[in-house]
Write a structure and sequence with these properties.
alpha+beta; Arc Repressor Mutant, subunit A; BirA Bifunctional Protein, domain 2; SH3 type barrels; seven-stranded mixed β-sheet; five-stranded antiparallel β-sheet; 9 helices; 26% strand; elongated; binds biotin
């Protein structure tokens, strides 16, 4: 009931009378009153004025599935959405759903992760309601080799969405961190479950630092948030809807490939290109200059002898960033 009331309140500019709500939903005034209380308990601010009715003053500052959906323009991504109060990792939660055959496009977000995962086995730790943590499941009909572009496309989508919404000069640190200046704003962890010749599903897990005012000392030099960069609190529900819109746009427009347009846009926004980098190959650390990104998402690096090699995964340290 509360979701139906909410969608009427969200779609109307001003007050809606209790009588009108009850008639539209075919329930009693008492049921409407109960629904309103439940919405207030969930963080919605609703003003009620005699003879006028109810008006939505503000949505909760924390993530909420109905609020995200009310801003969403996608056809598939996020149409089925779960927002959890607290979870170990949204990637792991969605993996369970994937194993049980959930549909493509399902999104799981959480106000808090207690075992958030980063790349290369690292921990991704954030406090409750400070960041947007979400995961998205796709079922591309292809062999594992055909999905290499998914992570760069996701990075491109999030980078563009953040530039549009916040005006920040966000860049991509290859392969998939979004940075502002020299500090990280977004991390992406893509995981895949596949057979030898067919992908079962991919999970794209994204963590965006939104409201952190301070970071722990050990990462302070390399982490930042939208709040620290803009001095503003952004509505997380609107932001998440924007990310999902952009993700669907980039993934479908480019048919999951790094098309020429996507490659150009990615390269223009890639802070790694043109810098000296160091990467790991086996046990060796190798240095060179990043000169471009290939169609399969690999980083092209020119070594000191002039040869160009491809770097496809692992740890890259970019001089002057982190
Ligand atoms: C990284 O930069 O190392 C990747 C960080 C990815 C964090 C996100 S938050 C949502 C999703 N769930 C996880 O456990 N990890 C990803």
């Amino acid at each position: 009931m509360k979701n139906k009331i909410l969608s009427i309140l969200l779609s109307s500019d001003g007050y809606v009378s209790g009588q009108s709500l009850a008639e539209q939903l075919g329930v009693s005034r008492q049921a409407i009153w109960k629904g309103m209380n439940s919405l207030k308990e969930n963080g919605y601010e609703i003003s009620s004025t005699p003879n006028k009715g109810y008006r939505l003053v503000s949505a909760p500052g924390f993530l909420n599935a109905e609020a995200v959906k009310s801003h969403l323009n996608t056809k598939l991504i996020g149409r089925e959405m779960i927002v959890l109060d607290s979870v170990g990792s949204t990637n792991d939660y969605l993996k369970e759903l994937g194993n049980n055959g959930c549909r493509e496009g399902v999104v799981v977000a959480a106000r808090e992760q207690t075992k958030g995962k980063g790349r290369l086995g690292r921990v991704w730790q954030t406090k409750r309601d400070e960041n947007i943590s979400f995961s998205l499941l796709l079922r591309p009909r292809t062999a594992p080799g055909g999905v290499a572009a998914v992570t760069p496309l996701a990075g491109l989508a999030i980078c563009k969405a953040l530039r549009d919404t916040t005006g920040l000069d966000c860049k991509i640190k290859w392969p998939n961190d979004i940075i502002v200046g020299k500090k990280k704003l977004v991390g992406i962890l893509t995981e895949m479950t596949a057979e030898f010749d067919a992908v079962e599903y991919i999970i794209i897990g994204i963590g965006v630092n939104v409201d952190q005012a301070v970071f722990p000392e050990e990462i302070e030099y390399k982490a930042t948030s939208i709040l620290l960069e803009t001095g503003r609190h952004y509505d997380k529900n609107r932001l998440l809807a924007k990310f999902l819109d952009r993700l669907e746009g980039e993934l479908t427009r480019n048919d999951l490939r790094l098309s020429q347009t996507a490659l150009r846009e990615y390269s223009d926004l890639c802070a790694t290109i043109g810098r000296n980098i160091t990467f790991t190959r086996g046990t060796r650390r190798i240095s060179g200059m990043a000169v471009g990104v290939a169609e399969n998402g690999e980083l092209k690096v020119m070594l000191s002898d002039g040869t160009v090699c491809s770097v496809y995964s692992g740890e890259v340290t970019v001089q002057g960033i982190y």
